[in-house]
Amino acid sequence: MTTISVTGHMDLTDESVPLVRAELDKVLAAYEPSGLVGVSCIAKGSDSLFAEAVLTVGGRLVGVIPSQDYRQAKVKPGHAETFDRLVDAVDEVLVMPHETANRQAYEAAHAVLMERAADRLVAVWNGQPPTGQGGGTAERGAAGT
């Protein structure tokens, strides 16, 4: 079995989405689908693209939800349908014990991603510093290396 976690930007441009998806497809093509487990927070952008790519190749998906209120508080209407579809498709859902989606909840979720990344962590990063309260891909990637 191969376990791969993802971390990455939420705000991908329309031009970058197909490029990121193509790279994710290349990464996943190197693994046997029946033994592939993808771990994702299923956020908008890189996380959801990765989750969709894992499911497309026939792998199993583990969803890590940062807090009990994450769906209601943080999932925007434009991502809600995708989020719900992917949550319905996961083999396992881990909801962090935080009531509210805040920095601590995101850090706990990303700690699980790092713990579960037994074989590989895929990071989608545009080289820019973080823009939100979640810590940013640069911080998570640095913490995991």
UniProtKB/TrEMBL annotation:
InterPro entries associated with the record: YspA (IPR010697)
SUPFAM superfamilies registered for this protein in UniProt: MCP/YpsA-like
Gene3D superfamilies per UniProt: 3.40.50.450
Protein name: Uncharacterized protein
Source organism: Streptomyces rhizosphaericus
Lineage: Bacteria, Bacillati, Actinomycetota, Actinomycetes, Kitasatosporales
